[in-house]
Amino acid sequence: MKEKIIIHNLHKSFGQQIIFSGLNLTVYEGEILCIIGKSGSGKSVLLKHCIGIIKPDSGTISVDGQPLTYTDDSAILKKFGVLFQGGALFDSMNVYDNIAFPLRRQGVSEEVIAHKVPELLAHVGLKGIESKSPSELSGGIQKRVALARAIAKSPEIMLYDEPTTGVDPITAGSVDRLIVYMRNTFGMTSVVVTHDMRSAFRIADRIAMLHNGTILFEGTPQQLQECQDAVVRQFIAGKASA
Ligand SMILES: Nc1ncnc2c1ncn2[C@@H]1O[C@H](COP(=O)(O)OP(=O)(O)O)[C@@H](O)[C@H]1O
Ligand SMILES: [Mg+2]
Question: What CATH number is given to the structural domain containing 200?
Answer without folding.
Answer: 3.40.50.300
